[in-house]
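ok trying this again, last paste got cut off
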Amino acid sequence: MTRKTCILIGAPVDSGKDRRGCLMGPDAYRTAGLAEALGDLGHRVHDMGNLSPASHAPDTGEGKLVRPNETIGWTHRLIRVAEDAMSKGMPIFLGGDHSLSLGSVAGVANHAASRNRPLFVLWLDAHSDYHTPETTGSGNLHGTPLGYVTGCPGFGGFPVVSNPVPQENICIIGLRSVDPAEKLALQQTRILRHDMRSIDETGIATPLAAFLERVAAADGMLHVSLDVDFLDPMIAPAVGTTVPGGATIREGHLAMEMICDSGLMSSLDLVELNPFLDDRGRTAQVMVDLAASALGRRVFDRPT
């Protein structure tokens, strides 16, 4: 296993939805021992602490969008930080709600373009997050990152996406909650998508292996975005968007170990952890364990 410089970037983004609590996520990952787990695997770990959003206009509460200006501020900040961190190691973005990925993915896409390499995105999530500010019914911008980074219109006021991610370079695994309008929009794209029925039928290894092979064949860089609600809420309850029937702990670790085996992951999001909803830190620990699996931990390496 190649030793990496893991750059922990706390992004306590809590503006992407109306239910508060994700701002506590970064420190929960630290308390659960993320840095220690990665260090034990031989990686160098640099913790940048917690970011704050770039300066932005105040949110007035008018209109349907939840705190759009704060989210714009976060996107500006994260794009710049992601670009810089990619030149120094492997950034791990500690969320924070999933709107942080508007900035993290756009930033790493800029870095990949500067290296003349394609960026691929693996989206492990119960939701497709393909809305735009114009199509969202809830007004929650944590449901819009894939719309943004693929260059969909409707993101006025946000930073211009300089290097949109091609639709065919995105793979969503774990889908089980997609509203009708979003489903129709997705069906008109080339985004690869696998819901939990297909996982039940074929297992998680088959679609994931096929996607990783495509990334390797293209000499691509791989951004992995892991949402807590990819997992079943019985094992990971600390998320405000619980959807029954998610991935099991075994499926989660298999996916992470396959990602590690591929050697392709160049950046990682850990998002939507709301410690206020957790059970004695159980979800934070599960997410730390999954991150460790993605970076080299194996079952025989850990005490039980």
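PB: full thing came through this time. Residues 68-86 form the longest helix (19 residues).
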